[in-house]
Design a protein that fits this description.
208 residues; alpha+beta; Cytochrome C3; 2 domains; two-stranded antiparallel sheet; 4 strands
Length: 208
């Protein structure tokens, strides 16, 4: 295949993935629409984490805080900072990924896209989809599955309360056992019968 045709094929494939992004369900930290300094920029966790295979700690917490949209509250969250290698510009430098001062429309969808996403229920008024995957399902051997609700927990706690002191920010990166929880690790850090339901109350978490 000729180099020009191969380059065109790769470009078209990337565009298909990017355009499909907003329709995907939440993955990792969900789909986030930045409204500053301009509306709107979609950041897709699914594209970066699931499709590209980037690990959470590549961005958190060196480049971005774990709280969705926290970065856009900073005075230096602007295109000039990106051009200098900050925030998205750490990777979007023309070497690791396309440069942040090129192909603007691949990130900036504009006011119409932002409002359409809100109307479709993909984001709420704050411009975020979720503070993590809505539910994580753990399937330990020999006992019923456990569903962990990020939505429930992030309404009461901040991301830093659990990450990364209690849980690593990586799917499957925490080798949890009931013995460890009974010793106050993982879920047992809070689920000790004082702060929250004790881990010994099996039916509260396990389906069977």
């Amino acid at each position: 295949m000729k180099p020009r045709r191969l380059s065109l094929l790769i470009t078209l494939s990337i565009m298909v993935v990017l355009l499909a992004g907003p329709a995907f369900a939440d993955s990792g930290g969900g789909e986030i629409y930045y409204s500053k300094p301009l509306k709107s920029v979609l950041f897709s966790h699914r594209l970066h984490v699931d499709e590209k295979g980037l690990s959470c700690d590549m961005c958190h917490t060196k480049l971005f805080e774990m709280q969705a949209l926290a970065a856009q509250g900073r005075s230096d969250f602007n295109m000039n900072s990106l051009y200098k290698g900050k925030y998205c510009g750490a990777c979007h430098n023309g070497r690791v990924a396309f440069a942040s001062n090129t192909q603007c429309a691949r990130c900036h969808g504009g006011v119409k896209e932002y409002e359409a996403a809100k109307k479709a229920g993909k984001i709420n008024a704050s411009g975020r989809g979720s503070g993590g995957p809505k539910n994580l399902v753990y399937k330990p051997k020999g006992i019923g599955a456990v569903t962990f609700s990020h939505e429930f927990h992030t309404n009461a706690f901040g991301c830093k309360d659990c990450h990364t002191k209690v849980f690593r920010m990586k799917k499957g990166g925490n080798r949890m056992t009931m013995d460890a929880m009974n010793d106050g690790k993982f879920c047992g850090k809070c689920h000790n019968g004082k702060e929250a339901t004790a881990v010994s109350e099996c039916a509260k978490c396990h389906a069977q």
